[in-house]
Amino acid sequence: MSLESIDESPAPGNADDVLAALAAEARRDTLRYFLETTERTATLDELASYVAGRVGGLSDDAREDTRLHLHHVHLPKLAEVDLVDYDIQSSTVRYREHPFAETVVEWSG
């Protein structure tokens, strides 16, 4: 994707808010899950397994630690800038497509 194809004023949220939200690797990995699987919804447990696996944490303790961080820190931050909808009651996450955020995730490796 070229810079010319990126909307100059990405919505929802502004570019600074999106970049701040994507500063954490776990948040970029959360979006990467949706980009790699082409799914638009996932459970908290599915995301925790994926994100923990990206950093080599395949143990039950690593997945649970990742799950807690996603629940309390990372998913609320992504939801704050409208990149995901996080339903705490059902522990489900719905990705809200955002070309600018997708480009940032792709470029981050």
Description:
This protein has helices spanning 15-21, 25-37, 44-54, 60-80, 99-107; strands at 41-43, 84-87, 92-95. By secondary structure, the chain is mainly α. It has a three-stranded antiparallel sheet with strand order 1-3-2. Residues 1-10 have low confidence and may be disordered.
Fold blueprint:
Elements: H1 15-21, H2 25-37, E1 41-43, H3 44-54, H4 60-80, E2 84-87, E3 92-95, H5 99-107
Antiparallel strand pairs: 1-3, 2-3
Features:
disordered N terminus, 10% strand, 109 residues, single chain, mainly alpha
Overall 3D geometry?
Answer: globular
Q: Please give the radius of gyration in angstroms.
A: 13 Å
Largest sheet: 3 strands, antiparallel
Instruction: Report the span from N to C terminus.
Output: 14 Å
H/I helix tally:
5
Helix content: 55-70%
Question: Could you list the spans in which at least 5 consecutive residues all have pLDDT below 50?
Answer: 1-10
Strand neighbour order, sheet with most strands: 1-3-2
**Chain-averaged pLDDT:** 89
Number of strands: 3
The fraction of residues in strands falls at: 5-15%
The secondary-structure element order is: HHEHHEEH
Which class best fits the helix and strand makeup?
A: mainly alpha
